[in-house]
Structure formats: C-alpha cells, structure tokens
C-alpha cells in the first residue's frame, strides 16, 4: 500500500526516533509499504518519520542510482555498487574521508535541491528486517543516501546542513511546502 509522505513543517520530522523490537506491530507489512511508497514517489530512500512513524527504520536502494549512471560517471564512485537494504535501530559508529558535495533532494521537501557536503564513508551498526545484527561500512553515493536517511531518524533534514544564506534563499519555498502550496505526484500529509 502506498502511504502518504509527511511534508516539511510536520513535527514528526524533527523527532529523535525510538528503537523498536521484533514485536513492533505489522513490521513486515510496514517495510513492504515503505518500499512501495518509496518507488511510487521516485525516491531512493525513505525513513519511517516520513510516513509519520517516529521509529528508527529506513530503507534505501542506491543500486538504482549506480545502475543509471553513464559508464564514465561510475568511475566517480569506485567500490560503490549500491545496495538495496532495510536499516532498523541504526546507529553511526564512524565516518571518514573528505567531505564532498552532492545535490540532494527529499520527498518531504519536494522541488528543493541543494548541494550538501557529507563525508565519503560511513560505518553503521543496525539490524535488518530479520533482526540480524550488522556493522558495515559504505562509501560514495550509498554512504550519502544512508547519511540522508539517518538524519531523518535523528530529527534532522538535509537543509540543516546548508549555510544560513542558502537557508534564507529557500525560506519562501519551505514556507509554501509547510502550508501545502505545492503540487507533487504523490500524496502528502501537511501539518495544520
């Protein structure tokens, strides 16, 4: 089932999310709905707060980014084949490498894209959908997508990484989003 996406301005997007247990109600169904929602809205990642659930859960599919690159562009992300994965109760262990810019967007902040600087690598501890523990290091665009979705479960947004001047320049767009004055191809929840 395709779920509505929470728009910028909704308080759930600013909550520090809670870890969950394997007994979380209908978790398999929730994860399936998140994948369906993410793909239906042309996303590469989706965090639970974006569907109005303040829990530490996100899904990513960076394979679609890597697979859609031109052959010469793939050289920019050596060692990054992309991943399609569920992250539950994720906690960053370490980051590394040079910070580099990438033009990010967000389903909760539609039609706003800005360059955000993030580290090259991230090591993250999490459990998968079967609650099997993992600690993995990711690089390149996959690390980027993980950082972005991880921010969501910590109550942060990609715009929080922008310099104050950039934030002021997009303020009217953000205000329009929070007031529901935006048209997108997917259903959104606006805070009233």
Structural summary, described in words:
With 192 residues, this protein is an alpha+beta fold. The chain has one domain (5-189): Peptide deformylase (Peptide Deformylase, Alpha-Beta Complex). The chain is 24% helix and 29% strand. It has 5 helices and 9 strands; from the N terminus they run βαββαβββββαααβ. It has helices spanning 27-40, 63-67, 140-153, 164-169, 171-178; strands spanning 5-6, 45-47, 57-61, 84-96, 100-106, 109-118, 121-127, 133-139, 188-189. The strands form 3 sheets. Strands 2-3-4-7-8 form a 5-stranded antiparallel sheet, sandwiched between helices. A hairpin with a 5-residue loop joins β7 and β8. The chain starts with a strand and ends with a strand. GO terms for molecular function: metal ion binding; peptide deformylase activity.
Major β-sheet, in short?
5 strands, antiparallel
* CATH homology-level superfamily: Peptide deformylase
**Strand percentage, roughly?**
25-35%
CATH topology, which one?
Answer: Peptide Deformylase
Q: Which class of secondary structure composition applies to the elements?
A: alpha+beta
What's the CATH class, please?
Answer: Alpha Beta
Distance between the termini: 24 Å
In the CATH hierarchy, the architecture is Alpha-Beta Complex
User: What is the count of helical runs?
Assistant: 5
Radius of gyration, rounded? 16 Å
Helical residue percent?
10-25%
Low-confidence stretches: none
| General shape | globular
- In the sheet with the most strands, the strands line up as 2-3-4-7-8
